Amino acid sequence: GGIGSTVVSIEQINKIPRPLEVIHEVSNPAQQLVVDILWSDPTDNDKEIGVQPNYIRDPNGTGNIVKFGPDKVQQFLKNNGLSCIFRAHECVMDGFERFA
């Protein structure tokens, strides 16, 4: 998961009502926020900017599950006074990958 197309502030994440209902068919902005946090990924390289389709996680092309570029990461960091984002859920060959 990540920041997707809709996450711009930590406050948005803090305001999500809990417990969550995890859905895959998005019908409102609150559901899109949860889908972005759970399923979005960084783009495949730093040259892919903005928000891109994620055909691996969204094979039907609904546009709900996306990839976010390094520009989106940098803006999120700036908006929230942060220096980095840690994501931890996938095994990678070197133990970690650096993005943005």
Description:
The chain is an alpha+beta fold and 100 residues long. Helices cover 27% and strands 8% of the residues. It has three helices and three strands, in the order H-H-E-E-E-H. Strands 1-3-2 form a three-stranded mixed beta sheet. The longest helix has 11 residues, at 29-39. The chain is globular and about 35 Å long. The model has no long low-confidence stretch (mean pLDDT 89).
List the helices and strands and how they pair.
Elements: H1 10-14, H2 29-39, E1 41-42, E2 51-53, E3 66-68, H3 70-80
Parallel strand pairs: 1-3
Antiparallel strand pairs: 2-3
Features:
100 residues, alpha+beta
β-strand number:
3
Name the beta content range. Answer: 5-15%
Spatially, the strands of the biggest sheet line up as: 1-3-2
Average pLDDT taken over every residue: 89
Query: Structural class of the helix and strand makeup?
Result: alpha+beta
The ordered string of helix (H) and strand (E) elements is HHEEEH
Low-confidence stretches: none
Distance between the termini: 15 Å
Tally of individual helices: 3
Described by strand count, sense and barrel closure, the largest sheet is: 3 strands, mixed
> Which bin fits the share of residues in helices?
25-40%
The radius of gyration computed from the alpha-carbon positions, rounded to a whole number of angstroms, is 13 Å
Shape: globular
